[in-house]
Amino acid sequence: APRRAEAEVPRDDDRPASRPAPGSPPLASPAVRQHAWDLGIELRFVTGSGHGGRILHGDLEAYVQQRDAGLPPATGGGGLAKRSGEERIPLIGLRRKIAEKMQAAKRHIPHFTYVEEVDVTELEALRATLNQRWQGRRAHLTLLPFLARALAVAVRDFPQMNARFDEESSTVTRYGAVHLGIATQGEQGLAVPVVRHAEALDLWGCAQEVARLATAVRGGKAGRDELSGSTLTISSLGPLGGIASTPIINHPEVAIIGVNRIVERPAFRHGLVVPRKLMNLSASFDHRLIDGQDAASFIQAVRQLLEQPATLFLE
Asked: What is the pTM of this model?
């Protein structure tokens, strides 16, 4: 998409513009920073041609041409140069709203987190087989549709997990429908689009809806009705998921399921050391309403469903 040209700050004279001090933050407008993000460029490696070393859109294009041509880009100094300076960024707009919501959730909800290891070897084999069989004809399956199915099945026996708590009236509302929030990182911050009636979707229907909502969020086109009304939330960072996490509950819900990355490690099976694909689930709960034993039992039920994926489809 065409970008608006950036006007340079007028100079008082014809002398060359000064450059930023070594190690100081790059000078660039928000539009240029977003452009650099889209191109996968770290601004500290770009030499700015604007006043005071300010980086312009044209500097980004020149950097890309040098990079694609295999030429070493010009930089303002060696990689071992001292860095100094500060950058003050006001918290405004959507980022401020996200911060306020997170702060309110952490302040009002007494969290506790339970972490369990899950062997997803069989599930990953099934996922690969299904994707290969239906390649190009059905939506690509990630782990999320299987986890969504496992949660939808498990809450039948643990309805207190699929609930919302109204503090003013001290009322817990348990829902039959599983409106599953999927924490999604968009350009403007974290959003939680909702897969409605996840309990009624098959794997491909869930995968298609997750992909549609993620595209809407990242494009800034998700509507208010698509970002509200969740009853239980999944938080996943994919390959960046780390070993464990302590996710913050999506207020006014009472539970959130964090998905950590899958790693292949040696494990004992029937007295033999074999490679297995293992993943941790890090789940946080509202301790006002959910006891530790119930939380552990719920996650164990989810673990058993994921480790024996055929049981996901037994009624």
From this structure: 0.73
